[in-house]
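Lab notebook, bench 4. We co-purified these components, and the gel suggests they stay together. Before we commit to crystallization screens, I want a quick structural picture of the whole thing.
Request: model the full complex, all chains together.
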Amino acid sequence: MLGSELQTVEQVRALRDARRTDGTNVFVIVRAILSAMRMTAMNLFRKPVTVHYPEKPRTYPDRYRGLLALVYEKDTEEEACIGCRLCEMVCPPAVIKVEMLKGEKRNYAKTFTLELYACEFCELCVQVCPTDAIVMMKSFDLATADRRELLLDKDRLHAIGLQHEQSWATGNKLRDMQGPPKMARTEHAAKEETPA
Amino acid sequence: MAELRTETMTVNMGPQHPSTHGVLRLVLELDGEVIRSANPTIGYLHTGIEKTAEQKKWQQVIPLVERMDYLAAQSNSLAYALCVEKLLGLEMPKRVQDIRVLIAELQRISSHLIWLGTHAMEIGAVSMLFYAIRERELLLNINELIAGFRFFPSYIRIGGLREDLPRGFHDMVNAFLERFPGKLDEYEGLLTKNDIYRRRTEGVGRVTKEDALSWGLLGPIARASGWDYDVRKYFPYLTYASYDFKVPTATEGDVYARYRVRIQEMRESIKICKQAISRITPSGAWACDDRRVVPPPKDKVYTEMEALIQHFLIYSQGFTVPAGDAYVPIEGPRGEHGVYVVSDGGNRPWRVKMRAPSFMAIQALPTLVQGGLIADVVAVIGSNDVVMGDCDR
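Here is the predicted assembly.
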């Protein structure tokens, strides 16, 4: 450090006085406060932007990334997970563990554990799943006082899947979502055709 | 007049001090109210992200590096993605580049809003924080719309973007760009001409032009002390060369000058965003078509065997990057954010090194606060806009 000489009382005072307000400055300060208060008063008459969460639920966008869950197949009502372990391989914090159970027609997940307390919610597992078995929910309501409750097994994940609304549309729904609606597309095309 | 007592007092400021922006600890040697020396201690938020990145596959690093500078998550992932793409020799479609420009600029506004709110709150204008966070909420909603996550969207990926833009994106961004300039005027009405604010900031924490360069304070701090260095102008990346914007500068180098530069930067960012959103078509290419890196579209995975194999290969093994090293700087909200990546030709990075602007800002702190009053320390820390996650990583 660049050590400096100890300052005398005069030097310290001079340093302070350089920024001290003299008599007329009381007026200046009052004016400054009033002008700031005017801005605050303007905000007094605006609609509040906050939402009282548990009473008034927010609407989540379609791509919301919330709790993870496993789903059943729509038509056969079998477990959709085939235990391919792709999500386990792609998970950056490695919180997913899957064991495969060989079946006759198709494979199943023998065990499927997910340590939600270490999850990054990066959604890579949802993105890679070839059967859209693991999905994310439009909810984050899983606060608990016990960390062990966040170690989710297969049954728990299936239960969560039935409990909440499914978010990021997968499969065919995802493809539908990627493009803009036909209306917007034609509007934009019309805009491009007519030169400004 | 008698001399002051010769003993000095050592005060620990932080790591739990509310105005040290996280967990910065400053050991201050005080002579009365005057600071004789300051000694920043860093490392309280050390996360080992650089080392952890070496254990991950290339694509898995993206959600990780976003956690570094948590206020500007997408500039981290942008810098990393650009660096890896340089090694891979990928050329992005123009639409992807424009979307990335838009996202980077929105991220800059969002980061500057938090800086503005916290900095003003530490000076004493507490209500400023609520106004700044109110507008930032709109930007977080945009993040939530495009990727479903508010802080760490991981929307920018190596090889393009996560998905195409969702419906309603243009409306949401336009609504924000429409609303924000008026709000910015409000903020300025609160602070720019306010005498109390000016007295707290003018002449405080001065950085000379030479000091800014020798401390490596590239970014808003250097621009407030007379340099006009901006990576977007000097080494244009993405499509920045085709955008019309100015680089705001000031010469005083004090806290007030940094405040003015950042406010002007937000106005310039709005200009860039408006140009970008008019260029981005609602649908189009959202990734490059290099099948080494970008997995096949999901609908093909369901129906075609080759696509399914490729899908499994990319996600289970990861793609490989040719051996070599690359350094890519981008203009982050805090200054030049550089990423240096070394690859040994495998499916994981051999080394990832970040040039973190917050680290430079903190190493310059002792010279900035020395000889000043203790009350000014919070003003200087706030105006340097340090994020400890970025500094320690």
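The CA atoms of residues 40 and 381 of chain B lie 11 Å apart. Worth comparing against the SEC data before the next meeting. The mean pLDDT of chain B is 87.
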